[in-house]
Amino acid sequence: MPATDPSDDLALLVAAAREAAVIACGFRAPQVWDKPDEGGPVCEADLAVDAMLRERLGAARPDYGWLSEETADAPERLQAERIFIVDPIDGTRAYLEGSRDWAHSLAVAENGRITGACVLLPQRDLLYTATLGGGAFLNGAPIRASAETDPARATLLGPRLAMSPEHWLGGEVPPLRRAFRSALAWRLCLLAEARFDAMLTIRPTWEWDIAAGSLILSEAGGTATDQRGAELGFNKPHPQSDGVLAGGALHDVLLPLLAASPVSPPT
Fold this sequence. Notes:
Elements: H1 6-26, E1 32-34, E2 41-43, H2 44-60, E3 65-68, E4 82-90, H3 92-96, E5 103-110, E6 113-121, E7 126-131, E8 135-138, E9 141-142, E10 155-157, E11 177-179, H4 184-192, E12 198-201, E13 205-206, H5 207-219, E14 223-225, E15 240-241, E16 244-247, H6 250-254
Parallel strand pairs: 3-4, 10-11, 10-12
Antiparallel strand pairs: 1-2, 4-5, 5-6, 6-7, 7-8, 8-9, 12-16, 13-15, 14-16
Helix pairs in contact: 1-2, 4-5
């Protein structure tokens, strides 16, 4: 497959995300369904954005594979060297509630590694972008993850479940403040701009929720792994990770404190 400059891919992702925003913001009362197996809501806007993205991105890069929350998975993607990984609307519940805390999350992976990413929050006028080796940016300005290493001064983004004693060694929960945001992609971006210090998800996490945000965070100097400290990989046969631990400098402090981590706690 001919090489593609990651910056060209990024320009394509940004243009597609902006078009997605026009579609999503144009709905007033979209029809809503429940996904099977308690998979959460999906609405007309999710499907309309997904269809546009697949058509536009596929036409521009016909040799790229496709993985999206709202498209039935197909094994052909596993043969692709490069692949789009897309969450048409990350934070559908927030979108349906009229909140501004939802995003379009788009990424390109090459041989399992994210090379270009954008996360757009149209209702907040926030555009996060990154290319592999090219740094991370918010609305065109460079961003950097938090250098905080003291849990007592830090805030962790995550659900209440993340602060349950059974998820920490010896049942000892670090003295972290906790906050929550609906869209996983945005949580990772908030870490990238040092608005928060760490993020934890315990449950299995879909690739489309974290693909774009993980590159933006890593290019901002942060780290995202699964909850056991393993590197995140993408375009896997089963596209999930074993939870996610992410952060700036605090990532390496929290990792050995997690009950799921094979790393010994610091002495």
